[in-house]
Structures are given as structure tokens and as C-alpha cells.
Write a structure and sequence with these properties.
Helix content: over 70%
Distance between the termini: 89 Å
Largest sheet: none
Number of helices: 4
Strand content: under 5%
Structural class: mainly alpha
Radius of gyration: 29 Å
Shape: elongated
Number of strands: 0
Length: about 110
Amino acid sequence: AVVSTQSTGEGNQAAMDDGGLEAIRQKRMAELQAQGGGEAAEKQARQQEMKNNILTAILDQKARARLNTIAQVKPERAQKVEMMLINMHQRRQIMGQVGESELIKM
């Protein structure tokens, strides 16, 4: 009877270890997923910073203010204009800075 009690105790211990291991695995998976989310947020922040740097370089102060005003009223429209400006800059279709009047024409 003593031997069977010990083996039952070992079986319960093994079951508890499996449960404990599973909890540790789930915790580790949650940590990895959170870390991955942090990396995605960091990448998005870098892209946003790069976009802002390009727009600052190609828009004069009044044009930048106009674009910010558009973004408050029509965010989708402002995003389209920003992407168009960045694409034109990358294709070297913009020489110098874009002023407010040129921005309005877009």
C-alpha cells in the first residue's frame, strides 16, 4: 500500500508539473507576443518619423500648416496628399519646396 501511495503521489506531482509547465509556456508566449507588438509599434513610429522628415523637407511652413489643417478636417484626404507628395519626392518630381499655392492645386 505504501508503494502504491508513492507512485500515486508521483503521478500527481507529474500532473502538477505538466500544469505548471503549461502555465509557464503560456506566460512566455504572451511575453513574446507583447514583444512582437512592441517591435511593430517601434517600426511604425520610425516610419511615421521618416514621413514627417520628408514632408518637412519638401513643404514650406505655410503648406505644412495647411496640410495639418486638412488632416484635422479630412484625415483620409491629408493621407492621400502626403503619400502623393512623398511619391513625387522619391521620383524626384519635386524640386525645392512646395508652397501653399502648389499644395492647394493638388
